[in-house]
Amino acid sequence: MKQPINITPEAAKAIIDKVSAKEGAIGLRLAITSTGCSGYSYNMEYAMDENLAADDKIEEGGAVLYIPKTHSWMLFGMEVGYAEDKMSSGFTFTNPNESGRCGCGESFSVERPKG
Fold first, then answer.
1. CB 3.0 to 4.6 Å from 89: which of 42, 43, 84, 85, for a disulfide?
2. Are 48 and 24 in contact (CB under 8 A)?
């Protein structure tokens, strides 16, 4: 069955590495926060046992990612990747639901589906 969110092998490895380094973590949680000039930004945090009943659980390549159900409409079809170079590393988000990004790339906007 196809997942609502695709996790690349590089992102799966990064999630597994980060979760194994944090005592008590059972996965990572990808949430949307209101911020920036375009409206929203992605926020990755450790998922602990508490308060996950209202989240969807995505498992891929041994990685566990939680998504708040209230944000799933904004994230459906998205790919979570991980990029690393000499100066930085971090998760990347390729989201077909984005309708715009701010000039600095820190925030994005989406339009709620009609209907």
1. 84
2. yes
Q: pTM of the prediction?
A: 0.83
Which domains does the chain possess?
5-108 (2.60.300.12)
Per-residue pLDDT tens over the stretch 40-89: 888 999 999 777 888 999 999 999 999 998 888 888 899 999 999 888 89
Token pair belonging to 108: 């994005």
Place of tokens 């600095």: 104
Helix, coil or strand: residue 84 = strand
List, in order, residues 6 or more apart from 89 with CB less than 8 Å away: 82, 83
Q: What angle do CA 23, 28, 32 make, to 5 degrees?
A: 140
Sign (positive or negative) of CA dihedral 15, 20, 24, 26: positive
Q: In which region does residue 102 sit, left (phi positive, over 0), alpha (psi from -120 to 50) or beta (all else)?
A: beta
